[in-house]
Design goal:
alpha/beta; globular; 34% helix; 5-stranded parallel sheet; 2 domains; two-stranded parallel sheet; Rossmann fold
Length: 297
């Protein structure tokens, strides 16, 4: 139903040309300057070659990205020329471009974040199970096409406190560590839910942090509009090492400390609350686009 509503609403707007055209005011830009500057770190004028306008975006291709671009950029459709890279972006482009994701570390100013492919990435839950009523243990399900995910399964999937499985698909090869998919509802029965980055960010991070379960993960290396780079280890999530060597030790510490876990859950829920209003996200993303526009020569 969520996907149907998302796509139906877009096509109604697209066919009737009835997109919201509100442009952020000067007062709004001043109020949210810190956020705008985080998403768009450009501070010097730049030139673009082979740039496009909104009319050049094919809404039938990379639709999750294209639809969001239309919603965000529609007020600037006549005068904004831009670069845009769809997909899981893990490197910084040589020119300023709108992207969904970027590396957290290093000089990433050419990666201008917008809330793209939002229907897939911005999923939140209303968790009705309190933390004390959940099952002890860590749960993870995901497609393990990446080396670090396979390394986790090889090292941890046989531990008795971890329910982990590979949901990748292949017609020709046997899937290592394969297990059936678990719905989000089923995963919410566990006190601890593991979040593992895939090609870029972990898509389950947002809904875990909106739940009454504790997110446990290595420190993120990539970020999206969710500002994963601003998350504080052992405050918003429980941090484990990249090689998972301390996962049992860390689990044993936190499984006996409900007060500390509940504090992390509260901190995570508060962080998520800033990303729940679609209109706030729309106007802030337009503010980021406006800053980008103002630096083009």
């Amino acid at each position: 139903m969520r996907k149907l509503t998302y796509y139906t609403n877009f096509w109604l707007k697209y066919l009737t040309k009835s997109f919201d055209v509100k442009i952020p005011s000067e007062n709004y830009l001043k109020k949210y300057k810190t956020d705008i500057d985080y998403y768009c770190k450009i501070n010097n004028p730049f030139k673009l070659q082979d740039s496009i306008k909104l009319k050049d975006v094919n809404v039938l291709k990379n639709s999750g990205y294209s639809y969001d671009l239309y919603n965000i950029l529609y007020p600037f459709k006549e005068n904004l020329k831009f670069k845009f890279i769809a997909g899981d972006v893990t490197t910084v482009p040589p020119y300023p471009a709108f992207v969904k994701s970027r590396p957290i570390q290093g000089d990433n100013q050419n990666s201008v974040l917008l809330p793209l492919d939002s229907n897939r990435h911005f999923r939140f839950v209303k968790d009705k199970i309190g933390f004390p009523d959940k099952k002890n243990g860590i749960v993870w399900r995901g497609a393990a096409y990446q080396e670090h995910r396979l390394r986790f399964l090889e090292k941890c999937s046989k531990m008795d406190f971890i329910d982990a499985g590979n949901t990748a698909k292949s017609k020709s090869e046997e899937i290592p560590f394969a297990k059936p998919r678990l719905s989000i509802k089923d995963q919410l029965n566990y006190k601890f839910i593991l979040s593992l980055e895939g090609n870029d960010v972990a898509t389950n991070l947002k809904w875990i942090m909106s739940s009454n379960s504790v997110c446990i993960m290595p420190r993120p290396k990539f970020e999206t509009w969710f500002k994963e780079g601003k998350l504080i280890p052992n405050y918003h999530f429980i941090e484990i090492k990249d090689d998972f060597s301390d996962i049992e030790e860390i689990y044993n510490i936190y499984k006996h400390n409900d007060d500390l876990c509940n504090q992390i859950i509260n901190n995570a829920n508060e962080y998520v609350s800033k990303f729940l209003c679609s209109k706030d996200i729309l106007y802030l993303s337009r503010s980021v686009s406006l800053k980008y526009l103002n630096f083009i020569k």
